[in-house]
Amino acid sequence: MSLDITTIVFFAIAVMIFVRLYGVLGQKTGSEQPPFRPPEVRDARDDAPAVNDNVVTLPRSPEAIARDAAPVPEEPIAGAAPETSLAAALRAIMAAERGFDPARFVDGAKGAYEMIVTAYAAGDRRTLKNLLSKEVMESFGGGIDAREKRGEKVEFTFVGIDRAEIQEASVRGRLAEITVRFAAKVIQVTRKADGTVVEGDPARLTDLVDVWTFARELATADPNWRLVDTRAVD
Fold first, then answer.
1. Residue 137 CB contacts under 8 Å (≥ 6 apart), including other chains
2. What are residue 232's phi and psi, to 5 degrees?
């Protein structure tokens, strides 16, 4: 009988120990995901502030800080002849905006050109508003309004850019301006509401040559260049 009581006592103690351990440890296996943390919540360890809701500036390494402290090298700049006002202006932009590269800027300008002419043809004011200065937006918006009042629509296909090159650049204070000459091919037809062709030919390529100026405040959180001036070349 004493043996049975001893067994029961040890069994009861074992159960109590198991219950306490379970309460402390739960059922973790070591492969659980960390607790969810919304993007806008930041730890005290995150010593770099967020630029906006989608982009976070990462802490910079000592090597990157040392590299940015070095002077801009006096080497040839793609698309600009040496010892010219254009080369000097581009170097000034590079000095004020580390990471700026003229060749990458031209690539971005090509993309902006296609987006803007396509959005204008489609009457897409929302896209244009993000890419144009207030004055240019007013001009483009007026053209769209006039076209809509006439009941006209544009059929537009962007074929491609033959050439894009920087023609001018300047820095005044923190405002940088870069002028790019574009040569592109498109297919565009303007029709009345009844389908009658007002302008253009759906079976013919049209050459566009435009000189556009983009501007941006340097050393600011906003990375966007906006179109501030346009000029068509016949």
1. 125, 128, 129
2. -85, 145
Domain that holds residue 190: 82-232
Instruction: Name the strand (E) or helix (H) holding 228.
Output: strand 226-232
190 within some domain: yes
Integer Cα distance of 223 and 77 in angstroms: 21
Whether 184 is in a domain gets the answer: yes
What is the overall mean pLDDT for the chain? 75
pLDDT digits (tens, 9 = 90+) for 26-79: 333 333 333 322 322 233 333 433 333 333 233 333 333 333 333 334 444 555
154 has which bridge partners? 190
Q: Residue 208 corresponds to which tokens in the numbers above?
A: 């566009």
- Total domains, the chain: 1
The beta strand positions in 145-225, using DSSP E, are 153-172, 175-191, 197-200, 206-217
Short-list 113, 232, 129, 228, CA closest to 170: 228
